[in-house]
Known about the structure:
Elements: H1 14-26, H2 33-46, E1 50-54, H3 57-66, E2 73-77, H4 82-90, E3 94-98, H5 109-112, E4 120-126, H6 135-144, E5 148-152, E6 160-161, E7 164-165, E8 171-175, E9 188-192, H7 195-204, H8 213-217, H9 239-249, H10 252-270, E10 285-286, E11 292-295, H11 301-310, H12 339-347, E12 348-351, H13 359-375
Parallel strand pairs: 2-3, 2-4, 4-5, 5-8
Antiparallel strand pairs: 1-9, 6-7, 6-10, 8-9, 11-12
Amino acid sequence: MSQIVPLSLPDISDNEIKVVSKVLKSGWLAHGEWNKKFESEFSSFIGVKNSISMNSCTSALEIALKVNDIKGEVVIPSMTWCATANAVINAGAKPIFCDVEPDTRNVSANTILPLINKRTEAIIVVHFGGQTCNMEEIVKLSKKYKLLLIEDSAETLGGTWKKKKAGSFGIGCFSFFPTKNITTGEGGMFTCSDNIIADKARALIGHGITNSTFDRERKKYKPWIREASYAGHNFRMPNPLAALGFLQLKKISKMNKKRNTLANYYNKKLSQFDFIKTPICNKDVYHSYQMYTVEVDKKIRNKFVNFLRSKNILASVHFYPPVHLQPFYKNIKNRVNLSITEELSERLVTMPMYSTLKKNQIDYITDTIKNFKSRN
């Protein structure tokens, strides 16, 4: 097969291109009407009162901390993209790294608890690859110690814990980067059911002004008045990207179902290889499979990934190095052993996964792995 099998591929239809083109031609390119439509639809989908579209999940994470005046310690996994930790630093707080469970690659109440002390103010859970954490136990923990709970749901749109969607247990932060289950190119969403927190978040992402340009322009009297109540940011999502997000969200359940079908096919095809450990899914989870990750022996991991890539299968690794071993974060003293995170970072392989992936492409991947095995 000469065709490249990409790691991920956005599913954008002709209709979506047509609608976005129409929005571009309308002349209203800043935050506008489509943001309101997208946010309303998102709230209904997640099951929350408020959704606020932003320019990235990273911005949503930072705003979640700032809107709650978090300046102390924030427990986060090291098994994540550096954006999670960067948001903590940029909000003026301190990240405290915790380990994960080996099977799900997620944090749990057991991995978080040893790090809680009088300086702890918040917990950020990261739902790894599309599998929601055990939120029942984590919610109990956060309530017991009166800690802010934030869900980095960048990889888990549509994923659930006991039929309750990720992003509805605490403050939810979502990503619409092109590798995610839906895309707006660049973009994110902040979700919560506290109206006061939501109003402050809306102001903080728009220069600290409590009403948007779109809302001001609809007023008949003095629409030019702009009063900043906070030292805010410009973290807003443009109107054309919100239109794309709205239409993408209409397809999310269908696309996630396809991802599950493909993950099951992967599991079946890869079961023949004794050196590959396929992902384990908790029985209480609906997995959104933003990523499909397997484990191999760390002695052959790099060789295995490079071999696949040499055959136009653009497999990758998530995440190496883990955040606590990144140059900027190496000087933070770890309070617990992060051995599981370190081991996983040397064993994990991310295989191609997207809703339009074909079974014959997985067959090609399987045949390529057979070729690898015969040589090693």
